[in-house]
Amino acid sequence: MLKNELYSNVLQDFNTGYWQLHKNPYKEDWSDKFYENLGYTKNDIRSNLDYFLDALIHKNDVDVFRDNFLNYRINDLNFKQHIKILKKNGKYQLFRCATNSELPVNIRIEGCFLFFFEIKLDQEGTLKKDNFYYQETAQMTSTGSWHVDFQKKESYWDFETYRILEYPEDYKPSLKHSANYYAEDCRQLAVDCFLNCAMIGTPFNTEIKMVTANNREFWARAIGKPIYNEAKEIIGIRGVFQDIDDLKRKEISLQKSVDIIAGQNSRLFNFAHIVSHNLRSHTSNLSLLVQLIEDVNDPQEKEELINEVKTISDNLNTTIEHLNEVVTIQTNNKQQKIPVKFKDALHLVVNGISHMVSNSNCQIRSDFTALEEIRYIPAYLESILLNLITNAIKYKHSDRDPIINIKSYIDKDKKYLKVSDNGRGIDLTLFKDKVFGMYKTFHYNEDAVGIGLFLTKNQVESMDGSISVESEVDAGTTFTIEF
């Protein structure tokens, strides 16, 4: 039995008996204190689980204890529970049984589990008090419990489950309708958890979106474990779920803020790199040319060098304008959003580049029937459309006229804009991580600058959206914006 004298003395002081559970074979050694607390000798009773369930534990506690104990043995799922055990004098004694993790001291024996039984003296009125505290706890923590019986093919809810899921008290829960209790994008998770628990006895503890009778979605913490019969076969599942919607939404909001800050830091780092690199190259060239001009006496050579200064000055000015656009995006994203019709924004953009559209024989097809407008900064939406359309025209395929398809739509309550073309496409194997980089180009057009997609991505992300790209060389490119 327990070899550590210090721990043994502690357990004696707390009037605690225990079982020593061997992993292989399945057997239990009961401590002397356990027998003593019940008034038995080792010859009076048999020290195994089946005898304990059949002859000693109160019938009202059998089912829950068996489930908890087998889950501890099979799945290492810790628990604590109050149970009543029959003493030799014919009366029941209340015990608090608990696994090792529930104790104030960590007692370990290599190759064994320990399971403890502590006498509870305040037995009278316990069931009534426990029921009261259970209801109070369930209501204060928004925790409902449920039970599925595979043998009777019935499901059971407690009072708090009905309240949380907003069903009337006369509603009869059923596995046939269980998909209705979960959000569409979480139903597969619910099925996987349930089947793994029902088929192989795997407990689950997960966060999942549920749906009330009034179609209100909320986040819940769902916990479940299998129910066993006397033959240790799974005959059902018992579980609880807690409404954690407020906490989860705050967590999601916090994570979103962290992602935004990380994105802003990344863009700031990129911006600082561009500033230091591009401005330094321009200023270095200017310094070199000024030095050459001072050293040259030939008027013609000086004039040529001065023209070079003008070129570098123009390039420097262009770079500063680009950097200013990036800064403007970050400072203007707090402008008030207003309803903007996609049709009106597209009309303004196409009118502004009508000469470019007509010269390229470009066809622009749009479909905004599914989502006609969105709350946005108008200048940003126009700029996004302008950059994507002009890119599609600039990089049209040499063998065909450009066709651009623009469509807005809603999918699972999220709003999207998709812009597709039939142009040259981008080799994403080579350039996937560089598509939205500043001054990144993927074709050999002389007028390619590599600023448009960078600005577009910054504009979309500054409004808490995202942009993705799909492309195939010689087939075309599709940009999808999630607002």
UniProtKB/TrEMBL annotation:
Transmembrane segments: none
One Gene Ontology term of the molecular function aspect: ATP binding
Classification via Pfam families: HATPase_c (PF02518), PAS_3 (PF08447)
Uppermost EC category: transferase
EC number of this enzyme: 2.7.13.3
UniProt entry tagged with the keyword Iron-sulfur: no
SMART domains: HATPase_c, PAC
Record-annotated PAC domain positions: 204-256
Sections of the chain in a coiled coil: none
Annotated Histidine kinase domain residues: 274-483
InterPro entries: HATPase_C_sf (IPR036890), HATPase_dom (IPR003594), His_kinase_dom (IPR005467), PAC (IPR001610), PAS (IPR000014), PAS-assoc_C (IPR000700), PAS-like_dom_sf (IPR035965), PAS_fold_3 (IPR013655)
Catalyzed reactions: ATP + protein L-histidine = ADP + protein N-phospho-L-histidine
Keywords: ATP-binding, Kinase, Nucleotide-binding, Phosphoprotein, Transferase
Record-given protein name: histidine kinase
